[in-house]
Amino acid sequence: MIIKFREGTEQKDIAELKAKLRADGFELHESVGETYTILGLIGDTSKLDPNSFYAYSFIDSVVRIQEPYKKVNRKFKLDDTIVDVGGVKIGGNNVVLIAGPCAIETPAQIDLITHLVQDAGAKVIRGGAFKPRTSPYSFQGLGIEGLELLNTVRQKYHIPVASEIMSTEDLPYFIKYVDLIQVGARNMQNFALLKELGKIKKPILLKRGLANTIEEWLMSAEYILSGGNENVILCERGIRTFETSTRNTLDISSVAVIKRLTHLPIIIDPSHAAGRWEYIESLSKAAIAAGADGLIIEVHPEPEKALSDGQQSLKPERFADLVKKLRRVAEAVDRTLE
Ligand code: PEP
Ligand code: MN
Asked: Quick one: which ligand is closest to 163's CA?
């Protein structure tokens, strides 16, 4: 349930009503806008009569929230959430580029890519250390050693880093070495993992599951926020459809839907959506034009030798060329891509 106060309501009136609702057992979520304040109620509101609030002269409106997600709901928070990833702000008017290899392979590989994509305009480096591979015979990632290599470039180049977590037991290493913890598509509904990530404050990049609805995706985000971690960025990476000419189908409409339903930022992963490097440019331009807050793109110096996802990885020079084009798209839709 959302309670909207009239413009100019006195603080003491808001405080009194809050104290009463708290005493009645509700969890409260206050959002202060420029002209008015709203109060979100979480709990069993079924016994509350919305009309009873109109007895107070300072109440503007009271509405029930139909959606099962509360804290991520746009109706609960007036302003867009801006997530600070090691000093890089994701959300608001910025378009942020995250780039790097699918998997960290060697010290030289991650060092070279970091240097090249940072020069080209990437503000966060991605690099997988724990890889969720379909085949147990495929390269599984360097594990903790990979995170240590990521930490080395993070310190050398003063740039935040993102990496995927697969198990709660690795969380202490992620807290130490990683600025943005990625939950991969295959783990979007790993509720035990989501609960643990709710207990920390590090930013979480929550990818959409391969075959999950937007509502299911938002319920997964709700797990993290309800645990106390409000630093969540959503990532659309394409979903399974009957189409086989791309690896997944990029659901570009999710950007528009997400912007309406939630205050959380959303970025697009054109690499896993397309599955082929030739399509990255088109999907990236579309993502920015549609209103995405950023992109996460796979880049490898020698894609033909990559241990994972080479077919969808851009060479660094192609990435640099792409960034120039994307700056013009961002400018055309009044966004800032530094
Ligand atoms: C990845 O980012 O390399 C990855 C495995 O992505 P997804 O979880 O979207 O498949
Ligand atoms: Mn990949």
From this structure: 1
